[in-house]
Sequence to fold (535 residues):
Amino acid sequence: MRRKEGAFITALVLIVAMVLILVTLPLEPLRGMNPPSSTEIVSDRFARHLLLLESGNASAIVNDYERNANVVWTGDAQGLQGDYSGSNNIGLLLRVFEQFGPPSIENETHTTMANGNDLVTVNSVFGFIGNSNIYGKVNGTVSAQVSYAYSTVVGRWLISRETWDFIRFNVQLRSITGGPGPGPSSTQAVDFASVSADGSYAALGTTDVGGKNGSVYLVSLQTPWQHELWRHVTNNTAIDSVAISANGSYVAAGGYWSGMFYGGGEVYLLNQAGRLLWTVSTGAESPVFQVAISSNGSRIAADYEHGILYLDDAGHIFWNYTFGAQGPSSHFAMSSDGGFVVSAVGNELIYLNSQGHQVWNYKADSDVNFVQMSSDGSYVAAGSLGGGNNHGSVYYLDGKDGSLLWRHQAYTPVQPLVMSADGSHVASGGNVGVLLFDSSGALLWNYTNVSGEPAAIFQSKSLVLLYGEYTHQVQLIGYTGTIVATLDIANLSAVAASPRSLEWVAVGGSISAKGGCAAIHIFDGSTTLTTVMLC
Fold:
């Protein structure tokens, strides 16, 4: 035991001696053991930033910026030049990388320079190239200067200011024509339009007057690439209705065989790239006059006059509710999640759940011509024709049990009728003008001298959109009754609006084999953004 204790004491003395010698030596850095400098860390952060740009994930990219960061795009930026401040505006700008592929970054070079202890600047030049199946090909070169500041809150370097000078930016916009049918024989009239809830896309349906085909169009409303994306020509089917999912990923369309008086019906589903996913026929003498699609595109409903067809995005028919002797139907609506459907059949409202089971029904005083539903199915609004005395009424019901919450006699056939997405406001049209109600049934205003009929309600902006096909006028009227704007549009044939934003479109003209084109006028509220020609 004593020998072991002695050996241990000797070893301990040697270790202490070595430590004392090392302490007294001059301090020299050991090769390969230096901590990385701020410029090296930021250089790595910038390389990762470019990788995120290649991912196209705007929500992830924006995390590289300070909350109050500033981004400036200059040069040939294809209409995106500007000063964008704050993470929200920067995130919206960076969605361009989601739309274009996303792009790959190539031939990148950069230098990094420290400006004091808490600021590092990166100067870089890089190219980018992308090929979106929606927009087409994009490529360009950017000279960038990026300033990084160290954040003690998150413990890493964040971009405080970024300037991109686009030396070049080329976009080859994609426009395709697909479908089994031949081109239009004479003239196609645009019968129906639908705008996605996010205001990014418009879908259009046309009917060929020559009796050959109809078409479905998708138009981009996104600045600055507002143009026709694709056109699908049907095989002998006139398109009478279109509906688009919330972000434009899917377009549903319905119609009937042309060349016959309301012949057999067809339901179509196409994706954002213009690919026809499926077609479902409703049979002879069953024309499809209206379609609806859920916000995510997973559920599609079609009114084929004798009933309601309910399908998924694979074209599987979940259920087919037939009206029998009650039919035909005149109008129907579906909740945004596809969980509820309400249909107007004669003087009766029939409310169905997602399994096709009737939840309740309500009988009005006369035939119902229009019915609307709030986005969650909580409220239903309907307008009746009024029978022999033409004294129609506006009805407002509880979606849970069909109980009548209020009724207002309009003393005119109610056609059409629109409802805000949250059910807070209802606007009805008729021979004596346009009425606007709130959810309590209070009449907010009654315009007897307006041109047109209600087409949409901008819930978030407190505006009603009125549409006059025969007067070629569109009016925007506030909930207070103030006329915000009156616009004259040549050959006006259809209007549609986004329920969540102020984007809306008006369609004028027709598509002719002799060279005529329909004009799609795109608006942000009362501001005219641009016109896209369908040629």
Remarks:
- The longest helix spans residues 2-24.
- The radius of gyration is 31 Å.
